[in-house]
Automatic annotation (TrEMBL):
Keywords: ATP-binding, DNA damage, DNA repair, DNA-binding, Hydrolase, Metal-binding, Nucleotide-binding, Stress response, Zinc, Zinc-finger. The gene is radA. DNA-dependent ATPase involved in processing of recombination intermediates, plays a role in repairing DNA breaks. Stimulates the branch migration of RecA-mediated strand transfer reactions, allowing the 3' invading strand to extend heteroduplex DNA faster. Binds ssDNA in the presence of ADP but not other nucleotides, has ATPase activity that is stimulated by ssDNA and various branched DNA structures, but inhibited by SSB. Does not have RecA's homology-searching function. Plays a role in repairing double-strand DNA breaks, probably involving stabilizing or processing branched DNA or blocked replication forks. This is DNA repair protein RadA. NCBIfam families: sms. Residues 388-493 are annotated as: Lon-protease-like. It comes from Luteimicrobium album. Residues 1-32 are annotated as: Disordered. The middle region has homology to RecA with ATPase motifs including the RadA KNRFG motif, while the C-terminus is homologous to Lon protease. Residues 10-32 have a biased composition (Low complexity).
Length: 493
């Protein structure tokens, strides 16, 4: 009997140990369960625990890829020795961070005064717009010492990944950019480019373009998100450690945005957009992002076979010689940054044979044209429901500012009535849906620019404030509060 009870106790103990062992094994398996893979968007960096076809942040398709295991805590926990000491902000020296002029006045205007040591500038634009020509001229000025104005020659490393060295040399000869200190290399390998920077120790680095350079340490083809991110990160690290100003040339997509991951624009210090029509010689450079200066400045350039030249006074390019005395034409003054530009808006209204008449624009926002036509119909009684309406600017300029609404409305009215506006008239003001005119900023600058070009009459919103209350000599200003009053003032002789 005792032996039987002892055998039962042994069996019970064995079963208990087995249960404990099973529980321990399950706990061990639960604690040693491998981490689930993480997925991230290659465009914006959005992360998710499982793969999806569309990014939940930027709404792009096919950009979510696996990046590794999702950690449960911070990866970097070790304390590394510091290489610099923290100082009070008032003790930080700023002399080494001053702008250095590039020798191209219009580009210096956009950059806020020039290139800052250690700054990385991204210049993006469509193919053939003139990016390489502009940067070759800047590199030549810096190499000759023309940029800083002191005459001290500098060393400039120009890396081309799209063209051969011979092609760049021919362009430099054509535009007069052959400088002794301008070093040229055709290379697309990132490690080799960093080796050239280490050996030559230049004062300026120009990389044309960032989408053509690749690293052997990263998978993917040149121009891919991972390659662009790696190239930009390595170049920026070299620029910051050497106080080396760097200019990167970037490609754009068909919608005008910078090609590659969105993080590229966040990494660099300055992002400039190069704009221009292939059928026009006018080129515009806009600062989209600038950590060292304003983001509302625009540089104007004239691109020709002999090179690219800055235009300090481009207003005359946006006016036609036949605009005066012609129906459907009105002149306005827009502000591109702090620079006033006088441009001409032309309109054509013709009978339509279509059930839905056409509304075609060039240099004007189509939605604002539709709004202006609706306001003209509702508050002025101008019927264009059975008419084709075409509105365009002169010289490839773009009137994206709301202050051009009044000029568009006057041009459409003039074209519909086939009556030209009085000579020497300019108009600017934002048109509201109630038919009212809203004030515009920079009234004194607009009036001064119009008076400088010989205009004598101006139709402006009544609520627009004039800085010191003085008007340009010889300028008559009609202050109006509604679109109907503006039409009457503009057509009065």
């Amino acid at each position: 009997m005792s032996a039987g009870r002892g055998g039962g106790d042994v069996s019970a103990a064995t079963a208990s140990v087995a249960r404990v062992t099973t529980t321990s094994a399950r706990a061990a398996r639960s604690t040693t369960k491998p981490a689930r893979p993480a997925f991230a968007c290659t465009e914006c960096g959005w992360t998710t625990a499982k793969w999806v076809g569309r990014c939940g942040e930027c709404q792009e398709w096919g950009t979510v890829a696996e990046v590794g295991a999702a950690g449960v805590g911070p990866r970097t926990v070790a304390v590394a020795p510091t290489r610099s000491t923290a100082r009070e902000i008032a003790q930080i020296e700023v002399d080494a961070a001053r702008h250095a002029p590039t020798g191209v006045g219009e580009l210096d205007r956009v950059l806020g005064g020039g290139l800052v040591p250690g700054a990385v500038v991204l210049l993006a634009g469509e193919p053939g717009v003139g990016k390489s020509t502009l940067l070759l001229a800047v590199a030549s000025n810096v190499a000759r010492g023309v940029a800083a104005g002191s005459g001290r020659p500098a060393r400039v490393l120009y890396v081309t990944g799209e063209e051969s060295a011979g092609q760049v040399r021919l362009r430099a000869e054509r535009i007069g950019a052959l400088a002794p200190g301008l070093l040229l290399v055709a290379e697309t390998d990132l490690a080799t480019i960093l080796g050239h920077v280490e050996r030559e120790d230049p004062d300026l680095l120009v990389l044309d373009s960032v989408q053509t350079v690749a690293s052997t340490e990263v998978e993917g083809s040149p121009g891919g998100p991972s390659q662009v991110r790696e190239v930009a990160g390595a170049i920026i690290a070299a620029a910051k450690s050497r106080d080396l100003p760097v200019v990167l040339v970037g490609h754009v997509t068909k919608d005008g945005s910078v090609a590659g991951p969105r993080t590229l624009e966040h990494l660099v210090d300055v992002v400039c957009q190069f704009e221009g029509d292939r059928h026009s010689r006018l080129r515009l450079v806009r600062a989209v992002k600038n950590r060292y200066g304003p983001t509302d400045e625009v540089g104007c350039f004239d691109l020709s076979e002999s090179g690219i030249v800055g235009l300090p006074d481009p207003s005359g390019l946006f006016l036609s010689s036949a605009g005066a005395g012609v129906a459907g034409s009105c002149v306005t003054v827009t502000l591109e940054g702090r620079r006033p530009l006088v441009l001409e808006v032309q309109a054509l209204v013709a009978p339509s044979a279509l059930a839905n008449p056409r509304r075609a624009v060039s240099g004007i926002d189509s939605s604002r044209l539709a709004m202006n036509l609706a306001v003209l119909h509702r508050h002025v009684g101008l019927r264009v429901m059975d008419q084709d309406v075409y509105v365009s600017t002169i010289g490839g300029a773009r009137a994206g500012e709301p202050s051009a609404d009044l000029a568009v409305a006057l041009a459409v009215l003039s074209a519909r009535q086939d009556t030209p506006l009085p000579a020497g008239t300019v108009a600017f003001g934002e048109v509201g849906l109630a038919g009212d005119l809203r004030p515009v900023v920079g009234l004194e600058r607009r009036l001064a620019e119009a008076a400088r070009l010989g205009y004598t009459r101006a139709v402006v919103p009544a609520a627009a404030a004039l800085g010191d209350g003085t008007l340009p000599a010889g300028m008559k200003v009609a202050r109006v509060g509604s679109l109907r009053e503006a039409l009457a003032a503009a057509t009065a002789t």
